[in-house]
Structure formats: structure tokens, C-alpha cells
Amino acid sequence: xxxxxxxxxxxxxxxxxxxxxxxxxxxxxxxxxxxxxxxxxxxxxxxxxxxxxxxxxxxxxxxxxxxxxxxxxxxxxxxxxxxxxxxxxxxxxxxxxxxxxxxxxxxxxxxxxxxxxxxxxxxxxxxxxxxxxxxxxxxxxxxxxxxxxxxxxxxxxxxxxxxxxxxxxxxxxxxxxxxxxxxxxxxxxxxxxxxxxxxxxxxxxxxxxxxxxxxxxxxxxxxxxxxx
Length: 228
Known about the structure:
CATH class of the largest domain: Mainly Beta
Strand content: 35-45%
CATH architecture of the largest domain: 3 Solenoid
Structural class: alpha/beta
Shape: elongated
Radius of gyration: 19 Å
Number of strands: 17
Oligomer: single chain
Low-confidence stretches: none
Helix content: 10-25%
Mean pLDDT: 88
């Protein structure tokens, strides 16, 4: 089956590429389900909806806007290569951009980060008040301090201490993991599950991995996880 929605990063936020040949109502339903699965990931994000060469009408563009508003997602533009669609988007009071004008790049990544393929590398401690949101895996060479937040659509690997909020698999991927040299998060989330550290922090036992097992988040030493 054709993939209905692809999630990419671009220079200004997230890009959702919609399948050109699927019925529009099917795409709306797929978007609704995607936002429901990844509510924390998409909430407050700046999103470009890329419809490619699909011909859409004014009412359909408005339906996209209403759906994103429902899930508190900011629709910054609709990307298209179709002349009719550009007119319909403008008639709906929305911004149209050419699909090729905003190419893939780290989404909501700070200046001290760079991407390699679909992965994001952050080479500094993430400090209080900073938010990193990325659709692919994130690797951080530093700590995640209290008050900092890291949200990834896939795995999060921290070569340091996690004491802030980390959310892996935020688009609904229950196979995602969080790895760190020390896991003492304010909150740890994988997919739609959440866990917190004990009020009395235990001494670090070395690198740890958090993952989902039997419907709950478990934390295991790296050596144990690697052998399983």
C-alpha cells in the first residue's frame, strides 16, 4: 500500500508530504490519525503540508487548515506544483509555496546541531528552556538539563546525563528507545507511554536504555539490553 504521509524536516519546521493519488478524504483521515498518535510531537510545530502536483479545491485547503488548528499545529504554508491548487490555496486565505522551494533540513534544530541523512546530531548540552524537535533519530553529545525538552520521532541517544524531558517515538513508534549514560529524567516518554524517575535518585549504574516491554516503559543496563 502506498505510504499516505511522509514526515520530513525542512529549514523552518516540519514537512508532511501527502500521497498524490490517494482520495483526499482518505488523506484527511490519515492526517487525523497521525496527529492523534503523535500529539506531543506535533503540538505547536510549524508544518508545511506538501500536496505535490495534486489538484485541490479551496474547500479542501480550508479543511486542511481546520484539521491542523484542531490539533494545535501551525500551518505555515501548503506546498504544491499545481497551478490550480495555488489559486485555490490563495482563495482560502492561505499561503502557497512551490514544493521544491523548502528542501529537507533539520527541523527546529539549534545552531549547534547538524544532520547526517535522517539523523540529527547535537554537539552541546541542551539547557533549560531549549526545545529540540526532529522527525528522525537524535544523538546528543552532552547533557539534557532540567527544563530542557527533546522530542524525536524515533530514537534518542544521549552521551551524557538526561535530567530534563525526553520523548522518543513521538509520532507513535513503540520500537523507539532512549539511551543515556545516566537516566534521571523529569519525564521520559516513548510513543504514548510516560514514566518518571523515582523521587530519590539511585546511584548511576552506567549506560542505560529505556524501551517499551509488555505495554510499559522499562529501563535496563546497556549491557543487558544489548544481549537480549
